[in-house]
Amino acid sequence: MFAKTQLVTPENALPGRDTPLPVPPRHEVLDAPLAPPFPAGTEIAEFALGCFWGAERRFWQTPGVVSTSVGYEGGHTPNPTYEEVCSGLTGHTETVRVVYDPSEVSYDDLLRVFWESHNPTQGMRQGNDVGTQYRSAIFYRDDAQRAAAEASRDAYQPVLTAAGHGPITTDLTPATTFYYAEDYHQQYLSDTKNPNGYCGLGGTGLSCPVGAARTTG
């Protein structure tokens, strides 16, 4: 039997499909586009930090964020469904795409939200949510994002170690194709959908050192 905490190999991944899942035209909370084209001057960041319902809410509540959406990234199966991702047979992790205005919020600020909103030392799980689709990841889109992500990781590790946590297991990897998740997952915890819905997103209760990762913005 396939272990859901073991990453599937490309040759064993599900075949997927050619047709993308439909994408809602507007953000349920921010009333912004979920898919490109995005407003001029905005930039994109993509993070995986456990169940994407609560993770997306953390980012849409961040000032300077223009739009958010949830999807699947880092796997092998084209245009996967939620059920396929949860099987562990696509290789994807639940991911939040963040569209932000860099004049109002920096990439470093978004990294701070990322690190402080989950426990990045748990490997193939986040709290009680177990499986490769809950692994922590930063999908950087250019060299500046990569450098900022590495610097913030290196600053955060000593804080975690001092608090008794283990090594950071977050993947730092170039962005791959972001496949939008189904309509009902988008802004799942909004007031008009599931304001009291389940959110397995936790955290360590720790903060990064102030100014620890100021390589951008």
From TrEMBL:
Active site per database record: C51
Entry GO MF terms: peptide-methionine (S)-S-oxide reductase activity
Record key words, sorted: Oxidoreductase
Record's keyword annotation contains Lipid biosynthesis: no
Listed InterPro entries: Met_Sox_Rdtase_MsrA_dom, Met_Sox_Rdtase_MsrA_sf, MsrA_MetSO_reductase
Protein's UniProt keywords contain Oxidoreductase: yes
Catalytic activity as recorded in UniProt: L-methionyl-[protein] + [thioredoxin]-disulfide + H2O = L-methionyl-(S)-S-oxide-[protein] + [thioredoxin]-dithiol; [thioredoxin]-disulfide + L-methionine + H2O = L-methionine (S)-S-oxide + [thioredoxin]-dithiol
Region (Disordered): 1-23
EC number of the protein: 1.8.4.11
GO cellular component: cytoplasm
Domain of life of the native organism: Bacteria
Biological process, per Gene Ontology: cellular response to oxidative stress
Domain Peptide methionine sulphoxide reductase MsrA intervals: 46-199
A Pfam family: PMSR
Family: Belongs to the MsrA Met sulfoxide reductase family.
Role according to the record: Has an important function as a repair enzyme for proteins that have been inactivated by oxidation. Catalyzes the reversible oxidation-reduction of methionine sulfoxide in proteins to methionine.
Protein name in the entry: Peptide methionine sulfoxide reductase MsrA
